[in-house]
Amino acid sequence: MFKNVDLMTAIVTPFDKNNQINYPAMKKLVDHCLKTGTRGFVVGATTGETPELTDDEKVELYTKFGQMVPSNVPVIAGVGTNNTKESIRMTKKVGAIKGVDVCLEVVPYYNKPDQRGMFAHFTQIAAVSPVPIMMYNIPGRTGVKMANDTIVKLSHNPNIIGLKQCGTMEDMEYLVQHCDQHFVIYSGEDPQALFTKIVGGNGVISVASHIYGKQMRKMYDALYKGDYKTAGELQCKLTPVMGALFMYPSPSPTKAVLNAQGFDVGGCRMPLLALNKPEKQALAKALGLPQDALLHSLSKELKL
Amino acid sequence: MFKNVDLMTAIVTPFDKNNQINYPAMKKLVDHCLKTGTRGFVVGATTGETPELTDDEKVELYTKFGQMVPSNVPVIAGVGTNNTKESIRMTKKVGAIKGVDVCLEVVPYYNKPDQRGMFAHFTQIAAVSPVPIMMYNIPGRTGVKMANDTIVKLSHNPNIIGLKQCGTMEDMEYLVQHCDQHFVIYSGEDPQALFTKIVGGNGVISVASHIYGKQMRKMYDALYKGDYKTAGELQCKLTPVMGALFMYPSPSPTKAVLNAQGFDVGGCRMPLLALNKPEKQALAKALGLPQDALLHSLSKELKL
Amino acid sequence: MFKNVDLMTAIVTPFDKNNQINYPAMKKLVDHCLKTGTRGFVVGATTGETPELTDDEKVELYTKFGQMVPSNVPVIAGVGTNNTKESIRMTKKVGAIKGVDVCLEVVPYYNKPDQRGMFAHFTQIAAVSPVPIMMYNIPGRTGVKMANDTIVKLSHNPNIIGLKQCGTMEDMEYLVQHCDQHFVIYSGEDPQALFTKIVGGNGVISVASHIYGKQMRKMYDALYKGDYKTAGELQCKLTPVMGALFMYPSPSPTKAVLNAQGFDVGGCRMPLLALNKPEKQALAKALGLPQDALLHSLSKELKL
Amino acid sequence: MFKNVDLMTAIVTPFDKNNQINYPAMKKLVDHCLKTGTRGFVVGATTGETPELTDDEKVELYTKFGQMVPSNVPVIAGVGTNNTKESIRMTKKVGAIKGVDVCLEVVPYYNKPDQRGMFAHFTQIAAVSPVPIMMYNIPGRTGVKMANDTIVKLSHNPNIIGLKQCGTMEDMEYLVQHCDQHFVIYSGEDPQALFTKIVGGNGVISVASHIYGKQMRKMYDALYKGDYKTAGELQCKLTPVMGALFMYPSPSPTKAVLNAQGFDVGGCRMPLLALNKPEKQALAKALGLPQDALLHSLSKELKL
């Protein structure tokens, strides 16, 4: 399913003026992403503001999203919570949706389980999921780290298809070398996009690809041709703007840029807030744009 | 409401053999806590496994808990989530329960709002809550830290009554000096119980007090009499056992001790797990008990 | 030797206009410290810019300092380096100086020995030192932490008299409870001055006592009388100014204040620099003084 | 001078049975390194136990080393200390030695200068050095980090030829993009060897190259041919053994392996210690060797 899928986008959830999901805007954004290098999607991840969606909204969103995206493009839907029973309930529901290929299950946040608890959590979910699950390891958000050993053990579960990993490159290298053959590994950190591919990972689940997809595609394609210098230089230029998209709570910076580009993705749901004017100016600066670039309409093709 | 309330217990939620809330066990535990020094409760905090309770369970739990506890003992009920709208909905419901004096609202976990978002989050909840709210700042679980300045600003909101704070003593000292007169501040870190009181905080919201309440009471009472040496020595002896109660995901170690003491609090809900045999033995050692102490029945009075 | 010695000053080394040690200024400062609460000295510690003194300067400084200070006031002289052989050589020399009561030996910095190497290092130095040695554990400067267990083992060496410790209060409590009876323990962190005393440590080796000695003395004396509230409030007010004295490389902020107070302690030796004007203004603000307070002459009695 | 110099070795200093520098062993090791991929040397760095050498020993070592190494192979000699005046004195002396091409100057350790102090420190040394200097930024040892901006400013100094950098890849990318044209940048972290080259750095100053030089050479050569997959796989296999060489204080693990391989490099000087038997067994395991491999004689060609 993930063959040649190096660049996936963790897509934002557009909201309309009434703070409801804006499906036409989502369709437009999906098409833009596919045209600029994206080869798969994670919908309803943190970037998609999933903590601020109701269960009913998630089911509707994933159902419509599954219809929007060509069937050969993998769709991974965010499901996991910090409650095993609840995660199982939603996984059964979401995994049955047509067009959802994989359920994304995060390491439980806030209640801080240990490795034994994580192993049990993912094993129980995998046992009942109608589709394969992907695990999501992001210690900076969850307060706990799933250890390499735990991941390797879980990688042998045939219904656990892979991992979205936020960690060091040392961990990434270890995982690539030790996980099961069938298991795919994506970095969840945009600045590791190139290095992950080089050490044998599958690629990146990206936020920056909403905006810099063409450059990321060019980077990967240069690498495949053996032109590591061009690839390396592109990563160097991408890294700071990738960082800038996290200088305020994500996805608010990404949405600010997309809105200026005319994608009409709306604001964020509380406790996240849309950027205010000084924040937009600071973001513009960090992206190498004129100070007021995000206050007016902006080209869909940004330079590095 | 919090006058003379120095020691509060963040009480565990007992489960029966069917993994349902065990109210008789809870009543027994409440009485034990009150007899051994506790002067207030937080029910449905992390220690109470609130992420693993349904909304209906929470409402029932808080309703019955409000009836169990004498009316002069403050009851703080855990409500907050990482979704502002959802937190508002539940706060209205829980705040209307008889016997709930305060709603506890955590800094949003996992989605990582910034200071502006936190300020808006707590302000909106406070605006509609039927009872005063207390904020809960615990960066190790939430991935973000509410800054001192933000707390000071929020302390002037008359419907925000106080803070449960997990941070450095430097931060505690700053907050005590700068927050509003009406605002109460409790440490959420047992090893800071003594220092917090010395620098002018209100006390501690404790896990260890389930088990070491008498010694904690003795420590505070020694301090009040000016006997800082006895108080200091007690803290020295308490600190390692307080730490031991977090050597596995909380509240599993506390429940293991309480079960051995005959309180019948049951296991934990997934993704948390009850301690297995080697873990119980390691915990016993860390508490200065014989290796198999937690495998058999244990005195309700542990020595330091 | 350390009975009733709760407050020691890690005294700065004054330099004259030619960047040579200014002994008259040192004498004046010593007298000031003794009058304002100091009961012992560490000379030639980091605060004394010992890395920027030659061996000959150190020997002269310690010889003269031994003569300056009343014989009942303990003098600890900084000796240790990250080279065991060299530390032994200097310890023999400095330990023979009249008036030097103790040699201070730092955990080796930069070359990052392990616990076994630290144990051997201190054991070999103690074996040949003419006077007892005190160890100095400051991971933020040395890049390695001497573990509690290693310290406890070394505390049983009769020629190792004590420890200057920069760590958590948990570590301090453990050490107080477990180290040898004869062993003294001082915090090297001013904000821990009060807590260290409360949990049974001997006191603090202070930088802030150059300037806020009276308040620190008052804090300790209040504690001894059982007035923990006054002591706690003083610590709350001292903590931020203690921190401010480290907002630029120490001892440059302390020297800036002392110079404004007329103590004529001069600048710093490279790679440390005297504060420039904007830095003096920022420091003044952090100390609660008027913006230009450190540009002109300043009272020797600062308020909190 | 550094054209095509991608792999440099920070060479250990061999000691004989009397703990004196063993020059025949050093010559043998130099030849081995050159044969297995090394294209330049840093002598008297931390790996060379420079904190444990006297000034006279350093001068003798660098003089003889300059003669050992072919003149087209760059030699960088460790000189810097945490005392600017002393660093200047030694730089003048060492920079005048025939065969020393560059003086390595570390960011001052232990006394923790700020950016202004670092800038002044390096500028003053560069002003008097007979040969170009290279700066060494290693926060884990020094306790302070030289900031990217400071490095960029210093890179424009014509007598500062480059940097040995231990930091994140984000910092490396920034520096490569922003430093002066003439300025060379090497990573001081073996696990970054490949990534550094890809993003445009000059290469790595390595410890692992004593032992795994052939594989590191093969890795770089694969990259140059565009075969990123082979290069990436080699890095994956090298990273854990590179880490193992730092599982005890460096260079003791490297010396243990070299001794088993017959290079006769001797022990370490205090406070560093030669590995004991259990440490050698643990290291062997971490290197993928039989448990007792380092207790007996070992092949000069280790497999990954």
UniProtKB/TrEMBL annotation, chains A, B, C, D:
Q: Which Pfam families is this protein grouped with?
A: DHDPS (PF00701)
State the UniProt keywords alphabetically: Amino-acid biosynthesis, Cytoplasm, Diaminopimelate biosynthesis, Lyase, Lysine biosynthesis, Schiff base
Looking up PROSITE patterns in the UniProt record yields: DHDPS_2
**Main localization of the protein?**
cytoplasm
Question: Which biological process terms from the Gene Ontology are attached to this UniProt entry?
Answer: diaminopimelate biosynthetic process; lysine biosynthetic process via diaminopimelate
What is this enzyme's class at the first EC digit? lyase
Question: Source organism's superkingdom?
Answer: Bacteria
Q: Which GO terms describe its molecular function?
A: 4-hydroxy-tetrahydrodipicolinate synthase activity
So where's the catalytic machinery, residue-wise? Y136 (proton donor/acceptor), K164 (schiff-base intermediate with substrate)
Compartment(s): Cytoplasm
**Quaternary structure and partners:** Homotetramer; dimer of dimers.
Protein name (Swiss-Prot/TrEMBL): 4-hydroxy-tetrahydrodipicolinate synthase
